[in-house]
Amino acid sequence: MYTFLKETFNNFFSFNNHIKKTGEIELACIFCQKIYKINKKNINIHINLVDSNNSIRCNVCKFYAIIPITEKSALYNLTKNEKINKLELWHKLEFSTDIQEDDYYLDEETKENFDRLLKV
After folding, report:
1. pTM
2. Which of 32, 43, 59, 67 is deepest in the core (most CB within 10 A)?
3. Letter string b/e over residues 37-63, b meaning 16 or more CB atoms within 10 A of that residue's CB
Protein backbone atom coordinates (compact mmCIF):
# COMPACT_ATOMS: atom_id res chain seq x y z
CA MET A 1 0.00 0.00 0.00
CA TYR A 2 1.24 3.47 -0.83
CA THR A 3 1.94 5.65 2.20
CA PHE A 4 -0.51 8.34 1.10
CA LEU A 5 -3.38 5.85 1.08
CA LYS A 6 -3.13 5.52 4.85
CA GLU A 7 -4.56 9.04 5.05
CA THR A 8 -7.76 7.89 3.32
CA PHE A 9 -8.57 5.30 6.01
CA ASN A 10 -9.96 5.91 9.47
CA ASN A 11 -9.84 9.66 8.82
CA PHE A 12 -13.18 10.89 10.13
CA PHE A 13 -11.95 11.71 13.63
CA SER A 14 -8.99 13.78 12.43
CA PHE A 15 -11.37 15.60 10.06
CA ASN A 16 -13.95 16.15 12.79
CA ASN A 17 -11.42 17.35 15.38
CA HIS A 18 -9.89 19.81 12.90
CA ILE A 19 -13.20 21.31 11.77
CA LYS A 20 -14.38 21.65 15.40
CA LYS A 21 -11.13 23.43 16.28
CA THR A 22 -10.81 25.72 13.26
CA GLY A 23 -14.30 25.84 11.72
CA GLU A 24 -12.98 24.80 8.31
CA ILE A 25 -10.85 22.22 6.56
CA GLU A 26 -9.62 21.28 3.12
CA LEU A 27 -10.46 17.80 1.85
CA ALA A 28 -8.36 16.42 -0.99
CA CYS A 29 -9.87 13.73 -3.18
CA ILE A 30 -7.32 11.51 -4.89
CA PHE A 31 -9.84 10.25 -7.44
CA CYS A 32 -11.29 13.68 -8.34
CA GLN A 33 -7.83 15.28 -8.05
CA LYS A 34 -9.47 18.28 -6.41
CA ILE A 35 -9.37 20.07 -3.11
CA TYR A 36 -12.67 20.97 -1.50
CA LYS A 37 -12.88 23.71 1.13
CA ILE A 38 -15.25 22.59 3.84
CA ASN A 39 -16.81 24.56 6.65
CA LYS A 40 -19.62 23.80 9.07
CA LYS A 41 -22.22 25.17 6.62
CA ASN A 42 -21.28 23.11 3.54
CA ILE A 43 -20.13 19.93 5.27
CA ASN A 44 -22.85 17.71 3.77
CA ILE A 45 -22.12 18.76 0.19
CA HIS A 46 -18.76 16.95 0.04
CA ILE A 47 -19.05 14.23 2.64
CA ASN A 48 -21.47 11.53 1.62
CA LEU A 49 -20.83 8.65 3.94
CA VAL A 50 -18.52 7.48 6.65
CA ASP A 51 -18.02 3.71 6.57
CA SER A 52 -17.54 1.29 9.46
CA ASN A 53 -13.80 2.04 9.38
CA ASN A 54 -14.51 5.74 9.97
CA SER A 55 -13.35 6.62 6.46
CA ILE A 56 -14.86 9.53 4.54
CA ARG A 57 -16.35 8.99 1.07
CA CYS A 58 -16.31 11.76 -1.51
CA ASN A 59 -19.78 12.96 -2.44
CA VAL A 60 -18.65 13.74 -5.99
CA CYS A 61 -16.93 10.52 -7.14
CA LYS A 62 -18.25 8.19 -4.40
CA PHE A 63 -14.76 6.80 -3.70
CA TYR A 64 -13.18 6.51 -0.28
CA ALA A 65 -10.29 8.59 -1.54
CA ILE A 66 -10.54 11.64 0.73
CA ILE A 67 -7.58 13.03 2.63
CA PRO A 68 -8.41 15.59 5.33
CA ILE A 69 -5.64 18.17 5.14
CA THR A 70 -4.71 18.52 8.80
CA GLU A 71 -1.39 19.12 10.53
CA LYS A 72 -0.59 15.40 10.15
CA SER A 73 -1.27 15.23 6.40
CA ALA A 74 1.48 14.97 3.80
CA LEU A 75 -0.33 17.81 2.00
CA TYR A 76 -0.51 20.22 4.95
CA ASN A 77 2.34 22.67 4.29
CA LEU A 78 2.20 22.57 0.50
CA THR A 79 1.02 25.30 -1.85
CA LYS A 80 -2.20 24.72 -3.79
CA ASN A 81 -0.23 23.80 -6.94
CA GLU A 82 1.98 21.39 -5.01
CA LYS A 83 -1.11 19.75 -3.51
CA ILE A 84 -2.71 19.32 -6.94
CA ASN A 85 0.54 17.90 -8.36
CA LYS A 86 0.66 15.33 -5.55
CA LEU A 87 -3.00 14.42 -6.11
CA GLU A 88 -2.37 13.94 -9.83
CA LEU A 89 0.59 11.68 -9.11
CA TRP A 90 -1.26 9.71 -6.44
CA HIS A 91 -4.24 9.33 -8.77
CA LYS A 92 -1.97 7.84 -11.42
CA LEU A 93 -0.36 5.51 -8.91
CA GLU A 94 -3.66 4.26 -7.55
CA PHE A 95 -6.13 4.44 -10.43
CA SER A 96 -4.23 4.56 -13.72
CA THR A 97 -2.83 1.68 -15.74
CA ASP A 98 -1.02 3.95 -18.20
CA ILE A 99 1.85 5.47 -16.25
CA GLN A 100 4.96 6.90 -17.82
CA GLU A 101 8.20 6.62 -15.87
CA ASP A 102 8.67 10.41 -15.84
CA ASP A 103 5.31 10.82 -14.10
CA TYR A 104 6.83 9.51 -10.89
CA TYR A 105 9.64 11.98 -10.62
CA LEU A 106 7.94 15.12 -9.37
CA ASP A 107 10.39 15.37 -6.50
CA GLU A 108 13.30 13.47 -4.97
CA GLU A 109 11.24 11.95 -2.15
CA THR A 110 8.75 10.51 -4.64
CA LYS A 111 11.57 9.19 -6.82
CA GLU A 112 13.22 7.46 -3.85
CA ASN A 113 9.90 5.97 -2.72
CA PHE A 114 9.15 4.69 -6.21
CA ASP A 115 12.62 3.23 -6.64
CA ARG A 116 12.26 1.47 -3.30
CA LEU A 117 8.87 0.04 -4.33
CA LEU A 118 10.36 -1.34 -7.55
CA LYS A 119 13.04 -3.22 -5.61
CA VAL A 120 10.51 -5.05 -3.42
Report:
1. 0.74
2. 67
3. ebeeeeeeebbeebeeeebbbbbebee
